[in-house]
Amino acid sequence: xxxxxxxxxxxxxxxxxxxxxxxxxxxxxxxxxxxxxxxxxxxxxxxxxxxxxxxxxxxxxxxxxxxxxxxxxxxxxxxxxxxxxxxxxxxxxxxxxxxxxxxxxxxxxxxxxxxxxxxxxxxxxxxxxxxxxxxxxxxxxxxxxxxxxxxxxxxxxxxxxxxxxxxxxxx
Length: 171
Prior knowledge:
By secondary structure, the protein is mainly alpha-helical. Helix content is 75%, strand content 2%.
């Protein structure tokens, strides 16, 4: 069962990352299937139904807030909720750090590859300064440039998969 649990989660993360890279979106059917599988698997062999559902709801709320702040897309927010079903509420804080770190690393790599690293850091600094001083937020350049929309789901998936493997596939 351990190998199956590990494979199902890694399959979700890989599929979401590939979809986001190729199409710049993560389909609802994938997020919904991933969330349902997470609740089912964690309910049967993992942390339990309640932990899984609470993790899903908490991750959905946090993802929605990040989406409202225009830092991630709607598909990314729903993917975080699907991952939350697998992680459960008690492991969610550390898992979020891993997902956000993965997203940051992939964003930096993407900016280097597309030769917009300096502009990205400058715009992120301007965004943070604007938020701190005036309460209004500017969009960072890495998320929406002439080069295309940054596929943050790749980073979320990479961070989540690395953390999932680190903890022994959640069981």
